[in-house]
Design a protein that fits this description.
alpha/beta, single chain, about 700 residues, 18 strands
């Protein structure tokens, strides 16, 4: 995440650290593909879906025209308040926002429009440029830029400018790689028309880090967006990032109003970097202390279960300068501010204080402006310190980032999945096909609803459920779903399949709380199995008939058993062991018979089975009426009849279900005929019942 301790010490001693880090950050592909080589003539195609499918770190987007969107990292309510206190322009910067996707290509491009540029007239701009010398232009990555970060360690910084931006990177094997296009930290841009010369799909959504603070957290003068400390920290933790820091910010609990989207999907962790604007602007120590406490109280009220890491002010080169201290309105030292923040954190169990005093070596070369704002190397050291504090915390990277709420764009979709893998390549190919399904927001909502039901203030029934207690409900719901499928009513099918899905999600939530698996593991496991067991679809194996498919399926399952540990003859599971004993008896009978038949334990043809049926009937009739042995022989008779069904290609369970349904229908018809004639079935003789039965059969034939 940053330079090693030895490298850092060597560069500090040589006085080259800040320039070396910035110069290295600027290396990489510029704004056009290479020309003159054989591989440069690539054909790019637009990425499937909407641009909002790929945005990370944005809470709002608005249509900017020409296929571009303008992303914002704050809600509308937050932006209105920040406008009212003069921080709206800084709040509209795209810090922490990125476009994230998995591609098999080696080139990406997108359209960019600068909507808010750097301000050369700002005093800090001149101060930074004077300190950095003539390394390059500010917007080329010296003060701000656009980073294209490729999984595996590649990073390319390009200038922020209007027009089409293309970046080539190394991917000679054309394997799926995750690419993140990190937008500027201080400037603001509209982006769109994202394209790649390979198959592509939105990157997996992860839990997210919420970063709060002022200019240091926003990434002022870090230069490269991927090297701000929140970007480094979130990437190191395997999290997405929502950066709600604002240059010049003073801590104000009112800015926490309007966080509905974040509260709905809480962050995995929050960092609050307390800068020095309060120290430099507020008129009394009492106000500094009171505002810090109010801010933290409100933050903990909004996110009571999220771990919060509060970074006290970093060392700054002028904090002990008497002339600088004379201009501090409160007359308090920065050390006093740090102690006050620590006290404000003490009442909150989910808050950890990270002392910023000695995180950075006291060397002005670590600061891009020589005194206050860490450069890229300094940002890496800050990220390391926060990561160390979080290693013992409960940081969950498996949640989903909050949804983008478009103002004038299409509805945001989300996905949760594994890191780039073969599954991503398969999914990318599927997404490239016309009519491919997109993401499913309703599924994510269901997962969150079930999670909510299991919370302390949730439903008592849901909270007390275990895997054992849910077994009977799973069986009941499966039977009801099967009945709905046979009935053929779409609305009934949707309802009953939903009940089955609820059982899957609820069991997964119970398991997640136990730490055994999550709903993502369930989805990933079946996805991997389907891809693995269909090499004739997702690989290079040919299959032209159902028999070919069955053979491939068995071969794959055999290899899976071998790869799982190469079982010996003694430890290998029995042929019938994987057939559940809880399966309905007819279905179980047909399945175990089919397993035995595969290894040759079978009749030559169906006539042999009928002969077995007659034999079993004779044995049944020889046993005493009402005896246990007679019941066992009846079971053998049923077993033989099920094998007749198997040999005839009939599903015994389904056939019996149809007969049950036919009997139900005819009996209902008999009841209806009897009512129409004013007769009671209970009072009818057997002959009269048979007569009604025959009439019901005739009614059935006519209908």
């Amino acid at each position: 995440m940053a330079l090693s301790k030895d490298d850092r010490a060597r560069l500090i001693k040589s006085g080259k650290l800040a320039r070396t880090a910035l110069a290295a950050a600027r290396m990489g592909t510029r704004t056009a593909p290479h020309s003159g080589d054989a591989d440069s003539a690539s054909t790019e195609t637009p990425l499937p879906g909407e641009i909002t499918d790929y945005l990370r770190g944005a809470l709002l987007v608005e249509d900017a025209g020409d296929g571009l969107v303008q992303p914002y990292r704050f809600s509308k309510k937050q932006l209105r308040y920040l406008d009212s206190v003069g921080r709206g322009r800084r709040a509209r910067a795209t810090s922490g926002i990125c476009l994230a996707f998995v591609t098999t290509g080696n080139e990406v491009s997108f359209d960019c429009r600068v909507t808010s540029a750097l301000d050369p007239a700002h005093p800090l701009y001149a101060e930074v440029m004077e300190h950095l010398g003539s390394l390059g232009k500010a917007e080329d990555g010296l003060v701000d830029g656009i980073d294209v970060v490729v999984g595996g360690g590649q990073a390319h910084t390009v200038a922020v400018r209007d027009g089409r931006i293309s970046v080539r990177f190394d991917n000679p094997q054309r394997v799926p790689v995750e690419v993140r296009i990190c937008l500027p930290l201080i400037m603001s841009v509209a982006v769109g028309n994202l394209a790649s010369n390979g198959m592509a799909t939105p990157a997996p959504r992860r839990g997210y880090l919420l970063a709060l603070g002022d200019s240091i957290t926003q990434g002022f003068v870090v230069g490269c967006p991927s090297l701000s400390y929140p970007a480094l920290l979130s990437e190191g933790l395997g999290l997405d990032l929502v950066n709600q820091a604002v240059c010049g910010y003073v801590f104000d609990a009112q800015t926490l109003v309007g966080m509905k989207a974040l509260r709905k999907e809480p962050p995995s962790a929050i960092t609050v970097a307390y800068g020095t604007n309060d120290w430099g602007r507020k008129g009394s120590g009492k106000k500094i202390r009171r505002d810090a406490a109010a801010y933290l109280d409100r933050l903990c009220e909004l996110f009571p279960r999220t771990p919060i890491y509060v970074l006290t002010p970093l060392w700054r080169a002028d904090e002990d300068d008497n002339e600088a201290l004379a201009g501090i309105p409160s007359g308090k030292s920065l050390s006093w501010v740090r102690r006050s923040i620590e006290r404000a954190c003490q009442p909150h169990a989910n808050v950890t204080v990270v002392d910023g005093t000695n995180i950075l070596p006291r060397n002005p070369l670590l600061f891009a402006d020589g005194r206050l704002h860490p450069g890229s190397t300094g940002a890496g050291i800050v990220a390391e310190a926060l990561a160390a504090a979080m290693r013992d915390g409960d940081i969950d990277a498996n949640g989903c980032a909050p949804q983008v709420t478009p103002l004038s764009a299409s509805t945001q979709k989300s996905t949760c999945s594994a890191a780039p893998s073969r599954l991503d390549a398969v999914d990318a190919e599927s997404l490239s096909r016309p009519g491919a399904p997109g993401a499913h927001r309703e599924f994510d909502r269901l997962v969150r609803t079930v999670w909510r039901l299991r919370q302390e203030d949730g439903c008592p029934w849901d909270r007390e459920q275990t895997h054992e207690s849910l077994v009977r409900y799973m069986v009941e719901e499966a039977y009801e779903a099967a009945e709905a499928l046979r009935a053929g009513s779409p609305s009934h099918m949707a309802e009953e399949l939903g009940d089955v899905l609820y059982q899957v999600v609820l069991n997964s939530q119970v398991a997640a709380e136990e730490g055994s698996f999550t709903i993502d593991d369930v989805c990933r496991a079946i996805d991997e199995k389907l891809v693995r067991r269909h090499p004739h679809v997702f690989g290079g194996v040919d299959a032209e008939t159902p028999e070919d498919v069955a053979r491939i399926w068995e071969d794959v399952k055999r290899r899976e058993r071998e790869e799982a540990g190469g079982p010996t003859m003694e430890s290998e599971p029995g042929l019938l062991d994987s057939v559940p004993r809880s399966m309905p008896a007819l279905m179980q009978c047909q399945k175990i018979s089919a397993r035995a038949a595969k290894v040759g334990f079978d009749w030559d043809d169906v006539s042999g089975v009928w002969e077995k049926v007659r034999e079993e009937r004779d044995e049944f009739e020889r046993e005493p009426a009402g005896s246990q042995s007679r019941a066992l022989e009846f079971g053998d008779l049923l077993f033989s009849l099920v094998n007749v069904a198997r040999m005839e290609g009939i599903d015994a369970e389904g056939a019996l279900s149809q007969s049950n349904e036919k009997f139900r229908h005819r009996w209902s018809c008999m009841e209806s005929l009897a009512r129409d004639e004013g007769r009671d079935l209970d009072a009818l003789s057997t002959a009269e019942l048979n007569e009604l039965w025959d009439r019901a059969k005739q009614e059935e034939k006519r209908s």
